[in-house]
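Target protein
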Amino acid sequence: MKKIVSLLIVVALFCSCSDYQKVLKNEDVAAKFEMATKMYDAGKYSKAIRLFEQLAPSYRGKPQAEKLFYMFSQSYYKTHQYYLAGYQFESFVSGYPRSEKVQEAAFLGAYSYSKLAPVYSLDQADTVKALEKLQAFIDNYPNSEYIAQANESVKVLNGKLEKKAYENAKGYNTISDYKSALVAFDNFIADFPGTPLKEDALFYKYDSAYKLAINSIPQKMEERLNVAKVAYNNLIKFKSDTKYKEQADEMYARVETDLQKYTK
């Protein structure tokens, strides 16, 4: 009995595949639409996409086009083809602004771009683009049921930009380019005032100022020692019990000692 059931399943699958191939090759758009819908409902999105790609040019402007392009967009999204999904969802929103699916499509279009955002250590052009798309969604649909998800995505993407900016600044410190490090840390602190990395940024800014000062030519040392002193005070003002306090205090003692040479 089990063998018979298994055989019937295999036959059904073969027939289904055979029917799909026939529809794929013929010119009957109604049959293609029916089969595409069947594949979509069965979760066979890659097969549905092949049919949607054939149908799209001839269905624009037709009554069933809204359903077709929604399924087409979703199929790209379900198969993780996020560039194409983003494009198709945006086209859907533009073409069917009164659709009951418009908010969902607008969100998924923007969210698709967030799926393309790379790890923080790589170029963040796609992250910036995703943030622009999500912010546009938030501005256009402030009361949408997808707002919480959009805001969470924005938070995650901003976190990547934040980490990228911090690591870039710290990288200058690591390679002893202290002038560039000071500028980069100033920019980081200004751009991300609420960052959880602020204590670290303030310390490495101080560290950069300190090392720049003690390695300066005599003519620039006093000025740079005073810059380091200000950086130390900013760190302690932000967090008096900073995890870097012992190291920071040791550096500060030298700053004070070296500054005394200029007060005599």
